[in-house]
Structure formats: C-alpha cells, structure tokens
C-alpha cells in the first residue's frame, strides 16, 4: 500500500460512530428482490433502495455524518461544498435538519431541478462557470467569506465512514451475500463499501460499475495510479468525477474488479429497473444492473447485493423517450 | 341491506383460507412512508406497494385464489376472463404457475405493456371493442369455445376474498390506521378491503378514490343503486368498469365515501408519486393520492393507509411528456 502519511483513513470504529450519529436522519432502506430479474441474470439479486432516502440518494449518509459530527462552534459557521448533484442536495438537507448554513457552489449549467431542491432544503447557491478553474476560484471565495466547513463530496473520511453504513445495513439485512456491486464515480460509496467489507465480511467480493465513457477508475486500477479525465461525457451524470487519494486507497486495495457498460446498456438497464423493480432510479445507478446483465459468468449462481444509489431523475426528460 | 338471495358473499373465513392458499404465489408487499408527502398532506401516509407483486398488481391475489382453489378436473379446462389489463395479466400469471390454460378478452385499446405481459405469462388474448357491451359479447363466445372457468375481474367471491388479503396484511403491518384509501373501478379491491375492515378493524374508515370522468361508483352510492356507464374515458384505465351486485353490496354498506379527482389531478399525483416515492405507479393507482391532496379536511392528522394497486405502465408513453 502506498498511503501518504498525511491522509486520514476512516476506520470501522468511525463507521459505528457514524451509524449511531446519523440513524435519526436517514432511512434504513428497504431491500427488494425480483423473480424476473433473477431469472434473467441467473443470480439471486438483492437491491438496497437508497433512492428511498428522504433526499433521494445515499449521499445523505456521508453528508449527515459530517454535519452532525461538527462541534457547536464549527457548526455555527455552517458547511460548504461544490457539487452539481446529489451531494449538494443531501448536504443542504442535513444542514437544514441541524439548522446551520449550507453554501453550495454549483455550475450555472446544473439542472434546475437540483438547484430547486438545494434551495428548498435551505441551501444557498453561488453559481460558477462550468469549468474547474471557475469552480475552484468561486469556492475559495465562498469558503473564505463564510468560514463554512468544507465537506468534499467523497474525498473526506467523514463522508466515506457515512457511506459505509449502507453496506453495514445491507450485510445485516441479507445473509450470505457473495458479492456487492455499486457504481463508481469519485469512489465514495465504493470506498465505504470496501471499509465495511474488509472489516466485517472479507469474503464478500466488491465489483464497481462504471460507464465505458467515463472509465477513468477502471483505467486507474489497471495502471496502478489515479487517471483523471477532464470532462467525460456520459448519461450517468453522477459518475463523471475522478478518484482522489482517499478513495484511490480503498479502490486500489480492496475492489475485486471494475466493470464497464455502454451508454445504451445503461439506458436499457435503467428502463428494465423501472419496468421490473417499479423503481425510479437515475442513470448512474443503473450501471450495476447493466454490468450484471453483461457478465453472467461472474454473477450467475451468486447472491449479489446491488446498491441502488439514487432516484433523482428529471421526469420530463427520459433517455428512452424522444421529445 | 338488499341482497339477492342467490349471490354468494365471501366471508372472513374465506379470506383466511385464501391467504394461506395464495401465500406461495404472492409477495407480502412492502410499506413505504415519505416525509415530504406527509408534510404536503398533513397526514401520516403509509403506502402498501402492490405494484411490487411479481405481475405488478394486487389482482394477483384474487386471481391466485381462484386458480389454486380449482379442483383438478375444473383446472384441466383452464380459466377465462375479460379485463382491461391487470386482471388479465395476473390471471395469466397464476394460471401459468399452475400450468393451466388462460383465455382473456381485452379491449384493443388496452395498454400494450399489459397485452405483452399477458402473452409473456402464457395467456391467450382475444380482442374486443373498448365498451362493456362488446366485451361481454366477445367473452361469451370465447368461454363457450374453451369451457374455461370464468374468473370475473371483481364480481366473484373468490376474487374478493383474495383481494381482502391485501388489507389483512396492511393491518398486520401498520398499527392504528384510521383510514384506508384505494381506487375504485369495479370494486374488487374496495370490497375486499370492506370485508377485512368490518371483520377485524371496524373502526377504520374506507374511502374509495375514483376518476371524475368515470364516477359511476360515486353516483351509484348517492343514488342508492348501481349506475353503469358503458365506455367512460379516463387515463385511469383500470377504473372504467362498473360495479356489479357483489361489489355493490360491499360498497353500499361499508364504504365511508367515494371521492373523485380530475384527469389533471390524477396525472399530477402520479408524477408526484414517481418523484417523491420513487415508485413507478400506474394512473389508476394515483387516484388515492390525488383525492388525499384534494381533501385535507378529511385526511390531515390521520394515519392513512394507501393501497398502491399497480405499476404496469407503458414507459414509452408518459402522460406528462409530449412525444
């Protein structure tokens, strides 16, 4: 392992503390099974429905752990982050529940629905241009002005410990899982899954699912170092961001493999989930089902846990309907 | 009560037998709650997700009770029915599980998703015009040809006893419900709900939810006798059929009231369910939420059980997206 001395890895103890801390603020999400999908894949699939979290995504776990772990002094200044998606929304939700300020830097091009949700939860948006330089510059200014605690969307030990509570619940709810599958973008959920699995169920294999068109994590794993793409284009909008040092540690040491799916395979799996599971899921979280359908030699005959990460979809614009 | 001597009312004992008989073939469906919808309505809402039944609708309960209650001799000739959709596909599903023939008469205008499902489950479709008169005429011919046991979509004591198992489970799963709400078309689910409620929880009020544009049950209740429209037009395609003698008995004696919603209110409630509950539900089963949103004076402050009756939607054709 090549871990820089200055990065702070979350521990299993952190996960236990996190779970107790966030319990009043999250949903212990339901597990669904589906005969038709089992038949189609040859596997026994268990779906943990994080799309049923109040703000519609698993990121409420890490965000709540960060927000409710702040001392009162820290909390008075609130929290701040940059995000165009579910982390912004979930951090605003958690900050709203604690009654502290939440400042979010979002690209002006972010979906209006997500901006509306941030505002509805009491978050304050500062818009930036859709470029890394503008985002960093704007965020530095906002943070300097507000003094809010920076909660990174994934490269933060509090966030990873929070996300780890999802697979902790999963292993409590379903016995004898052979495999866990989750999507990978920046690697927060996968890192939390690694942390839980190597702590309490090291026999469980972990597969990360990634869009072919944003396969930087897969290439990083093969290369042995982080590869960050500048601006990948994929319908799985939650999975465009690169790994960072903390998440790279978990991914490089504990993930069995990273499997990829094409845009069409992701859309087909998304529609199939809507049809069979009757679940509204977003494109990013259809990638696991897509890779399961594509790789029966890995999954058939196994008890496979699938993390349904989120359900915040623009219902007016579905990828299989031409408008 | 004005009950004709020759109609055979199902009893609570029939419900207990039905529940044991169908247990291997149905799902004990999950209950969802949702903070945002509770806030919006002022009620504590509990959603019983019958859309998660393997064939996507509650009608698998009554259909399975009928199919698995047949003697081997009766079963050899199979079953037959007419249905706008979910009963057809649920009866096909149940017949398929028993390995017996299933003939169904469906209006040619029924959703393609439902026709496809009937065929996938091994049912045989004969099409008719979308009117009660055409349906009954076509069915008489099909039944004469096949000799299959007629399992009426709702006016059949076996079917009503089967549907009653849904509210039986609901009352076992959620304590202290004040109100149950379900959609009303022919009245099978509502009749089963009445049967359960007056048998084991007579303090629970029952509200039926009906489209304004197919409000024959509401007008029947006010008039004191069955009013049947021949071919009402509503997006709630499962709710176009009229009450019959058995269901009229339950509706007229045990339903607290029938509330109606406009087409736009139904579409809005459907979209809201997708957005908030992350559940794919069909238009017919959005009517309860629509009437709850419309009548806060009845529901606010109450513990309200809502039966999410089905989720078989044509995903290529959503009512809020112009194509």
TrEMBL record, chains A, B:
Domain called Tryptophan synthase beta chain-like PALP: residue spans: 22-310
| Lipoprotein listed as a keyword | no
Show the GO MF annotations. ATP binding; L-serine ammonia-lyase activity; magnesium ion binding; pyridoxal phosphate binding; serine racemase activity; threonine racemase activity
- InterPro entries per UniProt: BHydaspDhtse, TrpB-like_PALP, TrpB-like_PALP_sf
What Gene Ontology terms for biological process does this UniProt record contain?
Answer: D-serine biosynthetic process
CDD domains according to UniProt? Thr-dehyd
Gene3D superfamilies per the record?
3.40.50.1100
Q: Identify which cofactors the protein needs according to its UniProt entry.
A: pyridoxal 5'-phosphate
Keywords tagged on the record: Lyase, Pyridoxal phosphate
User: According to its UniProt record, which protein family does this protein belong to?
Assistant: Belongs to the serine/threonine dehydratase family.
Q: What is the protein name given in its UniProt record? A: Pyridoxal-phosphate dependent enzyme
- Organism of origin is Roseovarius faecimaris
